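dumping this here before i forget
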Amino acid sequence: MKINRAALIASSLLLIFVSICVLLVFKYVASEKQRDLQNWQDRLGVIAESQKRSIDSDLLKQLELFQTLASNPLVQIYFSEIGPRDAADLTEVQSGQLHHLKNLLNATARSSALLTPVKPVSNNKAQEINDGLALVNKNRILLATRYFPVDDAKVEKIVTQVLQQKKSIISDIYNEPDGQPRFMVAVPVRAVQAMTASDLRGVIVAVINPEKSLYKITTRHWLTTFSDETILAVKHANVVTYISPLESPYALFHQQSADNSNLATVYAVNHPGGFALKRDYKNKKVLVTSRLINDTDWILVQKINTSEALRESVSHQRFILIILLLAIFFITVSFVAIWRNATSLRLQKITDRLAARTELLNAIGDSITDYIFLLDSNQKLVLVNQALCLFMETRTDDVKGKALNHLYDTDTAKRLLEIRHHKDIKNREIRLEINGRRYDYHVTVVALRYKKYQQSHLYVLHDITDLKDTQGRHNRMMEAIIQTLVRLTDIHDPYCAHHSERTREVAVAIAEVMNLPKEKMNALSMAALLANVGKLSVPAEILTSVETLTPEASSILHKSNQYSVEILQGLEFEGPVVEFVKQKNEYLDGSGYPEGLSGESIYQESRILAVANAFVAMSSSRAYRPGKAIKEVLELLFEQADSHYDRQVVAALLYAAESRPGWKDWQQVK
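structure:
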């Protein structure tokens, strides 16, 4: 015991030490990781803000250039006077203005990196290059640079939006049929000396290739990092679309479902300005933040792989864990060495003490009057106590190492072996026939888990034959008392003869339909049989009166249920039988008696008993009235369902009545 106590104390101290070390290490590692995450939130935020400012600046430069063009009086005059006319109808001055406007449009295209020359719409042909500038009114394209996509429906759509919203619009980046990305900038053109901002004459539309400037911003890398990536994305409906180049093999305009909240880009478009640890489109863990690009629906996503960002935290964790494991190893080795040195000094004492205890346990086992035997994993007898040997008239040496059927007959041995198939400790009462005599035993089977006795089972048989015989006599006496009470009730109230038996029969039939457990059904059956014994305390002249009862007589009759409870309280039942009887006159709506219970506060068995009792009472004749037909009784019970009676119980009664071949037996003969 001293060695065990010392080993327990040492093990506890070692466990506490290791637990504290592990807790401190992981707390430190978590703080380091949180510090690194905070640092990277700041660093990614700086990078994202820088990229956003660059893109905002590039778009603003384009927008201001086109707005300057839109505010040029020559452009405004063209939309108001020259554009709608045919070239043949132009005056010499207007022709000169048109020529100057073409040069201006060409210069603006050159400034915005759209270097294709300008030519009139009438000579414009479909080209492989779909970009350029155009002057468009609500009806058609008036003037456009070369290769401008004059037949693109997206141009008409953005012109309509600008004229409706009366402001400049930057479209999403979209995919051209030639596989090249494009986006449009559309600026409204007002009339010369317009009095209101809503006096619009047309729209300047620029179709721009983002590869010339915008993508150069998103694809640049920072000198201090290797895995950072800037992405532009946009969300429409339930789809996130990447509108800037991705790493191979993922193509431009790659799409992913917006339902996947673990994706970095999905998180970014749903939480602009947020910061989180997610997985990117390549399913790699990344740190991600995002910013909303001004005047667009574009989201700038800035991310970096966690393998690079959190490399320092991982290195710290690995180093400290190695140090901890080494410390635990040396401490454990020291502990084992000390423990072995201490235990080796007392090993002989422990062996001697164990032998003494074995002899003591054998002596105790032989002194116990219960029958004990131990079976090994091969179902061979390892131990048989003296009491069992004396009972079976054999010796331990004669049966030790042999099968159980050498001690018991084959059938008895088989029944005992079946008990051990259950796990852990099993208790069971079993009746055996031994040497032509009946015996009742309480059998306990313990599955041993010790190394030497793995898969072995210890049997303890306690003889309860006398107890069972006494219990049987008690049960028979109890049944006789109950039957006597029922017969006395029938004699006292001849008009209710066999009422109790019919009530029990109906209640059990309802319980069977409702699949009540056997234990509840037995308690319900007993309650139904004894529910009316309180009538023994009611004067016979009230029970046999052929006239309507007076209020005083009715009050006495109502108290019969209370008398039943008082009579039954002195008896012992399996289950709350007395409570079932006490509640049989309670109604669901609380209008019953004696306590005015309602709903689920009434036992289910009491609700069944109430329906069965009412059914038998209404269908049976009384001194002052004849019994009602069963169908009429069922209809009356359904009318009072949910107020007085449980509708499920009444429905179960109807099912039982319709399913019972002899249901008319429930009707008392008038």
